[in-house]
């Protein structure tokens, strides 16, 4: 069975797609191909991914960017359309909405092809620099919906939204959990703090919508706690300048996912305060919570519905109210940390998720 | 301060609006007028309302005229009602207008072009994502988009709906006014339970007995069960169906409507409430129904559908169970341990929520 993953992104940086491919590569009878915008995919790939994805064939997308965005978009779609018709796959697993026009045309020629739409976020209501792009995403999803075999979403809230918006389709949730983390690791008991100083970390993009402004101010004013910032973004220099006089705040810059857990093992609490610009971010189930939990940290988060729903009964997560965030964060940080003795629920692994995706292909 | 509440509904049945009006009247901060429809063509002032509140009815002259096509009726009523709203506002010159749902937005927004006053927009549900006509939903969306820039405070019944509007329409000062009925909180922690006599798990469903509330499914499940009883409090289109099941099965009872002042004490006799919605629209999916608060105030746990707002409330308040649609409902209910410890700490009062919204103006 020939399966093509179609994406407009640089595949070497898209860990969701890489993990999906990694979970599928071992299945017999499956020939996997993937499009990529990488110039040199193999050299950009992290080592452990490179070993596992040796059999993966890639189709490099041509670079039309110098011709302007609209011409580039049309030509890319035409290119993918022609290539897909030539390759005649049994399954087209496409990610987000970029290539929907081309795939829709392919569906006219390849009547038996199975189309699977993998929505990495709520495209219709996502933050975008181009204000009309979310609206276009809605119409693109509408265009392809009837031809879809099934839908993959990152969480239940997005899956339900798409179903209510466009109509019922078989759907599954494939979470953005880190690769290689078993249930045993997720169930790891949170450790007792060995030092007197609580170490709090923030992981991710240092951009707006992550509450970094008041977080840094908070730790400047509360020197009893340490803040460790992992990530990079357009706020990095600004935050660094702001925190220059505070000895309890440290910047580490970008850490690759495969090395992140080594740093997190030394932390006590992870911050996941998403107050984003889009409904898609509001419905998000951030990867970093899985990173934190699997490294034995407690997590502080806003009570966004998907986070609360998914992590119900997991008492390693503390929720703080947006309107009283600073006071509530202070009381959480001052709470004595004891070893967590309650059994936590089981979370899916990539092995299980790989089987779920494989079942969609049959 | 002159305050006008505008609603297209007949406020006879809209307890949310009646509660708001009475609470605001008690505060003595406002001279209150309500502009509403009088679909029953009665000219009688509502006895539920405080005496100090003036009511201006907009009479529906074309009601029940069978020869008028529905689209003509809809257009006529929409235009006529908004003209009457505009004329009432012109006469009253309010300082604040509190608009309920999308229909009156046209008249209010047009009047806003002539006079400077504050607008509170109160969405009782996700108006452009409701069950029903896609055309009506689209009209509501256009009205909300048209008026949005002039809205000073946005109010709704659940945080998820507020967040959705905020991202969909643009950021606005917003406030939550829930559908709770604070006056009838059960202060007695030791109500006598029916199950003490029956020795079975006693479930209760309260609310409108209509489609979209999983009532048919509940009836099928309890018809096959010998370990659980269920009672239905309320009335609606499915009352006759429930009555049929009541006659055929001893463990299913149609109690009928119960007055608001007796509701909480009635509910407290049961072991668990049922709050199972069907996702027939995105509005229903994000909803936080009145019955959540009714069960909560009665200090009984509840079983809720796995919808964002409902499940979030149950998880954060530790006041019930979440039902996953993939499981068998009968097995799930039979396996519940209703003796577990639940938390029914008082929530922020309705009065505080309402006045907090007005303070944001």
Summarize this, please?
Helices cover 39% and strands 17% of the residues of chain A. Chain A has 362 residues and is of the alpha/beta class. In chain A, the strands form 2 sheets. In chain A, strands 3-2-1-4-5-6-7 form a 7-stranded parallel sheet, sandwiched between helices.
Task: Tell me about this structure.
The complex is a heterodimer of chains A (362) and B (361). Chain A has 16 helices and 13 strands. A seven-stranded parallel sheet of chain A has the order 3-2-1-4-5-6-7, with helices on both faces. A six-stranded parallel sheet of chain A has the order 10-9-8-11-12-13, with helices on both faces. The termini of chain A are close together. In chain A, α1 (15-24) packs across α16, α4 packs parallel to α5 (100-109) and α5 (100-109) runs parallel beside α6. Chain A has helices at residues 15-24, 41-44, 47-52, 69-87, 100-109, 133-145, 156-166, 183-186, 212-221, 236-242, 257-264, 279-282, 287-294, 305-310, 325-333, 350-361, and strands at 2-6, 31-36, 57-60, 91-95, 114-119, 150-153, 170-173, 198-203, 225-230, 249-253, 269-272, 298-301, 317-319. Chain A has 362 residues and is of the alpha/beta class. Chain B is of the alpha/beta class. In chain B, the strands form two sheets. A seven-stranded parallel sheet of chain B has the order 3-2-1-4-5-6-7, with helices on both faces. In chain B, strands 10-9-8-11-12-13 form a six-stranded parallel sheet, with helices on both faces. In chain B, α8 (239-248) links the parallel β9 and β10 (252-256). In chain B, α2 (70-92) packs parallel to α3 (105-112) and α3 packs parallel to α4 (134-148). Chain A binds chain B through residues 125, 156-157, 160-161, 163-165, 277-279, 282, 303, 305-306, 308-309, 312, 319, and chain B through 129, 160, 163-164, 167-168, 279, 281-282, 285, 306, 308-309, 311-312, 315-316, 322.
């Amino acid at each position: 069975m020939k399966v093509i993953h179609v994406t407009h992104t640089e595949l070497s940086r898209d860990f969701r797609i890489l993990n999906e491919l990694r979970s599928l590569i071992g299945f017999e009878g499956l020939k996997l191909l993937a499009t990529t915008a990488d110039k040199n995919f193999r050299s950009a790939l992290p080592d452990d991914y490179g070993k596992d994805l040796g059999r993966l064939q890639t189709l490099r997308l041509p670079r039309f960017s110098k011709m302007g965005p609209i011409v580039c978009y049309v030509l890319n779609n035409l290119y993918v359309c022609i290539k897909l018709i030539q390759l005649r796959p049994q399954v087209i697993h496409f990610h987000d909405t970029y290539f929907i026009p081309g795939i829709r045309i392919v569906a006219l020629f390849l009547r038996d092809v199975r189309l699977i739409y993998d929505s990495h976020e709520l495209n219709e209501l996502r933050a975008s620099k181009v204000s009309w792009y979310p609206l276009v995403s809605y119409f693109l999803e509408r265009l392809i919906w009837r031809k879809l075999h099934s839908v993959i979403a990152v969480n239940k809230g997005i899956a339900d939204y798409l179903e209510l918006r466009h109509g019922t389709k078989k759907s599954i949730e494939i979470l953005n959990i880190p690769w290689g983390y078993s249930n045993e690791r997720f169930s790891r008991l949170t450790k007792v703090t060995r030092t007197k100083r609580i170490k709090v970390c923030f992981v991710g993009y240092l951009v707006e919508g992550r509450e970094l402004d008041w977080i840094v101010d908070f730790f400047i004013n509360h020197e009893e706690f340490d803040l460790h910032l992992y990530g990079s973004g357009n706020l990095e220099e600004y935050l660094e300048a702001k925190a220059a006089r505070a000895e309890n705040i440290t910047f580490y810059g970008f850490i690759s996912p495969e090395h992140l857990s080594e740093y997190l093992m030394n932390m006590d609490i992870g911050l996941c305060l998403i107050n984003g610009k889009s409904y898609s971010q509001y419905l998000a189930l951030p990867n970093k919570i899985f990173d934190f939990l699997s490294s034995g940290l407690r997590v502080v988060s806003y009570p966004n519905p998907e986070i609360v729903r998914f992590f119900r009964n997991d008492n390693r997560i503390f929720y703080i109210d947006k309107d009283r965030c600073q006071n509530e964060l202070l009381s959480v940080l001052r709470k004595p940390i004891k070893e967590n003795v309650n059994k936590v629920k089981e979370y899916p692994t990539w092995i299980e998720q790989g089987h779920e995706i494989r079942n969609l292909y049959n | 301060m002159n305050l006008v509440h505008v609603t297209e509904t007949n406020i006879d049945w809209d307890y949310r609006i009646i509660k708001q009006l009475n609470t605001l009247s008690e505060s003595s901060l406002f001279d209150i007028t309500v502009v509403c429809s009088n679909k029953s063509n009665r000219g009688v002032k509502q006895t539920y309302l405080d005496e100090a509140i003036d009511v201006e009815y907009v009479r529906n002259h074309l009601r029940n005229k069978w020869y008028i096509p529905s689209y003509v009726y809809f257009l006529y009523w929409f235009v006529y009602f908004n003209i009457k709203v505009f004329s009432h506002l012109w006469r009253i010159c309010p300082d604040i207008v509190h608009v309920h749902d999308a229909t009156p937005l046209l008249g209010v927004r047009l009047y806003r072009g002539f006079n400077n006053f504050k607008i509170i927009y109160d969405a009782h549900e996700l108006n452009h994502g409701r069950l029903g006509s896609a055309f009506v939903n689209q009209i509501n969306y256009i009205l909300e988009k048209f008026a949005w820039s002039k809205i000073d405070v946005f109010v709704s019944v659940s945080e998820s709906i507020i967040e959705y509007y905020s991202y969909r329409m643009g950021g606005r000062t917003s406030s939550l006014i829930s559908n709770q009925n604070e006056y009838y909180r059960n202060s007695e922690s030791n109500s006598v339970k029916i199950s003490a006599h029956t020795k079975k798990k006693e479930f209760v469903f309260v609310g409108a007995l209509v489609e979209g509330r999983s009532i048919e499914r509940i009836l099928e499940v309890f018809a096959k069960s010998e370990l659980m009883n269920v009672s239905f409090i309320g009335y609606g289109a499915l009352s006759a169906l429930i009555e049929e099941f009541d006659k055929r099965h001893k463990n299913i009872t149609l109690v009928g409507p119960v007055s608001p002042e007796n509701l909480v004490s009635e509910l407290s006799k049961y072991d668990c409430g049922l709050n199972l919605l069907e996702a027939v629209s995105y509005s229903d999916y994000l909803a936080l129904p009145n019955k959540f608060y009714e069960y909560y105030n009665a200090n009984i746990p509840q079983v809720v559908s796995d919808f964002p707002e409902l499940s979030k409330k149950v998880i954060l308040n530790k006041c019930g169970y979440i039902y996953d649609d993939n499981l068998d409902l009968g097995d799930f209910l039979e396996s519940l341990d209703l003796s577990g410890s639940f938390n029914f700490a008082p929530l922020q009062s309705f009065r505080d929520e309402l006045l907090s919204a007005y303070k944001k103006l």
